[in-house]
Design a protein that fits this description.
The protein contains 4 helices and 6 strands, in the order H-H-E-E-H-E-E-H-E-E. By secondary structure, it is low in regular secondary structure. The chain has a two-stranded parallel sheet. The protein has a two-stranded antiparallel ribbon with strand order 3-4. A two-stranded antiparallel ribbon has the order 5-6. It is globular.
């Protein structure tokens, strides 16, 4: 009886603690719910491993941080409409073909896209997504190996992972998916200021932005992610908090470097047309002639276009619903691409092969190049 009373007392404390945890979670985007859904103390129950893979099958090896599932397994599933005030998991890998639509703004694909098409389950088409090694999501790119396009670092890189030193999310000083992200799902994320992994945009360490509450399941001009950009004037000017600077960590020559992007005299660092690569971290409002095609972005009212999202340099102004071309029409890498993957080549938001100048003049590239 003494032992039972002791267990009961611990159980009451655990229940109270969980209740406090749930109330705290309800006020932000932190993970909430029963601890045992995500964690296991010993990876064993009735002689069977508790850890499972993305298909739900038991895996013998335990996961770090006492997790039942790894990154990929936890984020594998089919997205559904999120109801305000409820917690759910953003799924970035599907086991069946996701609904994508013409540009991924309809259906069940979230802002970052989906690994389905590059993963083995979707046919393993290298050009449709980032080849991530975590949990065996994808093999190496058959053509590129582990060298990212536009990478000028010289050293041979390991295959990309979800997080850590060789990944996009989490603390890059930690060479482990689990270690790099550890604690962030439970930490204070009320202010996305880049000071910690948890307080960084989508756990992209140091990057800031405004996070749409349903991960752009139903994006509109008034409800969407707001990305951080920098309206730079030289090729070497960078803002380490901007979303494009994250991409530039691997695809650097596509983003910065003398003579790498544009300028009539590369040695002067002038960041202007004629471009040698599509500009990023460039504000369309920097073009003085307001009669050019770019000023028709968003139509007559210049409504923000979720099909080709632009960034702003001042996030204190909140989510932009109508652009003003005053540092709020900044072109970024993800204006055209999705980070995880799409059904299109080069992770593009739309099928580039059907974009025909003078024939179909709406959407896709024509969102910005309105007169083409």
């Amino acid at each position: 009886m003494k032992s039972n009373r002791k267990l009961y007392r611990y159980g009451v404390l655990a229940s109270v603690s969980l209740g406090v945890f749930l109330m705290a979670a309800a006020a932000s985007a932190k993970v909430e719910g029963q601890c045992a859904v995500c964690h296991t103390m010993h990876n064993s129950q009735d002689g069977t491993p508790m850890a499972v893979d993305a298909a739900g099958a038991p895996q013998t090896a335990p996961n770090e941080v006492l997790l039942v599932k790894g990154c990929v397994a936890c984020h594998t599933g089919t997205n559904q409409q999120r109801v305000a005030g409820t917690f759910t998991i953003p799924f970035v890998n599907s086991t069946t073909t996701p609904t994508y639509g013409a540009d991924g703004t309809t259906g069940d694909t979230l802002a970052g896209g989906n690994f389905y098409w590059v993963a083995t389950t979707g046919g393993g088409v290298d050009s449709t997504g980032h080849n991530v090694a975590t949990d065996g999501l994808s093999g190496q790119d058959a053509t590129l190996g582990t060298t990212p396009p536009g990478y000028t670092g010289g050293a041979t890189l390991p295959q990309l992972t979800c997080a850590g030193t060789n990944g996009c999310h989490g603390d890059k000083a930690i060479d482990s998916d689990f270690g790099a992200i550890s604690g962030s799902h439970h930490a204070d994320d009320s202010a996305i200021d880049g000071t910690t992994v948890a307080k960084s945009y989508r756990f992209l360490d140091g990057i800031i932005g405004i996070e749409d509450w349903d991960w752009e399941y139903t994006p509109t001009s008034t409800e969407h992610n707001q990305y951080k950009g920098v309206a730079r004037t030289t090729e070497n000017d960078e803002d380490p908090q901007s979303i494009s600077s994250l991409c530039a960590q691997c695809h650097d020559s596509f983003h910065n470097g003398a003579g790498e992007v544009g300028g009539t005299n590369p040695t002067t660092g002038v960041f202007a047309s004629p471009w040698v690569r599509h500009p990023t971290d460039f504000d369309m409002g920097n073009i003085a002639d307001t009669t050019t095609e770019y000023y028709s972005y968003g139509g007559a009212n210049n409504d923000y276009q979720v099909t080709a999202p632009v960034a702003s340099s001042d996030l204190s102004l909140g989510v932009v619903s109508q652009v003003t071309f005053n540092n709020d029409t900044i072109v970024t890498c993800i204006a055209c691409h999705r980070a995880h993957g799409t059904p299109n080549d080069d992770l593009l938001r739309w099928d580039y092969s059907v974009v025909n100048a003078g024939v179909s003049g709406t959407g896709a590239c024509f969102t910005c190049h309105t007169t083409k």
